[in-house]
Design brief:
alpha/beta; Immunoglobulin-like; about 20% strand; 2 domains; single chain
Length: about 300
């Protein structure tokens, strides 16, 4: 004969009724998530004060930092003087490669040049409250008052893209890329209150390598340089419409199907011949036909 006996066992919650619900609310102890109302009030007040204290320290630190900053000029810019030299179009890895018979291969370079040169259109410089004529020949610096004086925005010298002639993109919308005579447009990087000075010697230009061919330079008033009347720059706050002077460089007879390594450097007082200031390298390869020979390279200075 078989018999059964039923016994009362304790539940998983340690004998308490309600199970997992009581972990949120215990009606006997009047606890929510293991804490009474007083306990929750105390810990809430503690964390409010604690985080308010942290926020106060953060805000005070920012305020002290802002008090030490000059709103018109960076405190330290000794490592960026003299100004660097940069160019357009944008070239990934400083390398320009394209085929003259394939517009899609140089479209990205032409687009980059068009976007850059657009700000130098004459119609964008008609506001006499923002722009002024600074002469038709190179002059000395244009002083527009003290840098740290709050006298309002300063006017900017007009610079027309027409000054770049063969590299202006007005007559040749491909900037010479289509015919295998590409242009580079170079400028000095903006540095607040920087005053470039001309070189002490005029014997500066090294002969170009025979594979590079003739190079033409187009700049303000027909000069291959940066006129001083466009300096100094007063910063984005006081000089929001500032236009850097430009120089167009046109390669008129590049050897095709060869990688040409070109070094471009600005000359002036403060720029040393062996230094890296105002210097960039770019590799240019213009393919006219499929190059079945091994690729060779040439080096030149501009």
């Amino acid at each position: 004969k078989f018999s059964f006996k039923l016994e009362k066992t304790s539940n998983m919650s340690g004998g308490k009724s309600g199970g997992w619900r009581e972990t949120f609310w215990d009606p006997e102890k009047r606890e929510f998530l293991g804490r009474t109302g007083d306990s929750w009030l105390k810990i809430s007040v503690f964390y409010v004060i604690f985080y308010a204290f942290l926020c106060g320290i953060f805000v005070a630190t920012i305020l002290v930092l802002l008090m030490t900053l000059n709103m018109y000029k960076p405190r330290y810019q000794d490592r960026i003087v003299p100004s660097g030299l940069s160019f357009s179009p944008y070239a990934h890895n400083l390398e320009i490669i394209y085929k003259t018979d394939d517009p899609s291969s140089y479209e990205v370079y032409v687009k980059s040049l068009k976007e850059f040169i657009e700000q130098y259109n004459d119609e964008k410089q008609t506001d006499n409250m923002k722009y002024e004529d600074c002469g038709t020949t190179p002059k000395l610096y244009t002083e527009r008052g003290e840098l740290e004086s709050n006298t309002g925005q300063r006017k900017s010298c007009r610079f027309s893209r027409r000054e770049l002639q063969g590299c202006s993109g007005e007559n040749d919308t491909t900037f010479g890329f289509k015919e295998g005579k590409p242009c580079l447009i170079v400028k000095l990087n903006r540095i607040i209150n920087f005053r470039p000075k001309p070189p002490s010697s005029s014997d500066l230009w090294a002969e170009d390598d025979g594979l590079i061919g003739e190079i033409k330079y187009f700049g303000f008033a027909g000069n291959a340089g940066f006129p001083l009347q466009y300096f100094p720059y007063y910063g984005k706050m006081l000089h929001p419409n500032y236009l850097q002077p430009l120089v167009g460089i046109k390669f008129t007879n590049l050897t095709k199907n060869r990688e040409l390594r070109i070094k471009c450097k600005v000359y002036g007082e403060g720029y040393t011949a062996e230094g890296i200031d105002g210097l960039f390298y770019v590799r240019v390869t213009v393919k006219q036909h499929e190059n079945k020979q091994g690729q060779q390279s040439a080096f030149s200075k501009i």
